[in-house]
TrEMBL record:
Gene that specifies this protein: CNTN2
Record keywords: Repeat
SMART domains according to UniProt: FN3
Residue ranges of domain Fibronectin type-III in the record: 11-109
PROSITE patterns registered for this protein in UniProt: FN3 (PS50853)
Protein source organism: Neovison vison (American mink)
Region (Disordered): 93-133
Protein name: Contactin-2
CDD domains associated with the record: FN3
């Protein structure tokens, strides 16, 4: 007799970060073992090393189907360090996450809002002190 054990998928492998922008990156990964139940979807997570907590990120496509091996991460903060990981899910649950990607830094960008609480004055002749929040 043959016993077939089904379970949540194994961890995806080889998470690679490409096309790094100021608020987006492109992630790719390799499929993990499906444990005899087709992978239904992937979830992407990011953290800010070294001590940040893993959080789910917005992606394009918004729902990453089980046959995908790449997706774009959206809504990142410019000039910030990130690591990424991938989790696979099937009808039996979500498997262990992939190992973290290499650390990357998003590109710099112009500020999205002007400084507030602007004040200044004082200082020596030929010198201007400016403060903002």
């Amino acid at each position: 007799a043959t016993v077939l054990v089904r379970g949540p998928p194994g961890p995806p492998g080889g998470v690679v970060v490409r096309d790094i922008g100021d608020t987006t990156v492109q992630l790719s990964w390799s499929r993990g073992f499906d444990n005899h139940s087709p992978i239904a979807k992937y979830t992407l997570q990011a953290r800010t090393p070294p001590a940040g907590k893993w959080k789910q990120v917005r992606t394009n496509p918004a729902n990453i189907e089980g046959n995908a091996e790449t997706a774009q991460v959206l809504g990142l903060t410019p000039w910030m360090d990130y690591e990424f990981r991938v989790l696979a899910s099937n009808i039996l649950g979500t498997g262990e996450p992939s190992g973290p990607s290499s650390k990357i830094r998003t590109k710099e960008a112009a500020p999205s809002v002007a400084p507030s609480g602007l004040s200044g004055g004082g200082g020596a002749p030929g010198e201007l002190i400016v403060n903002w929040t």
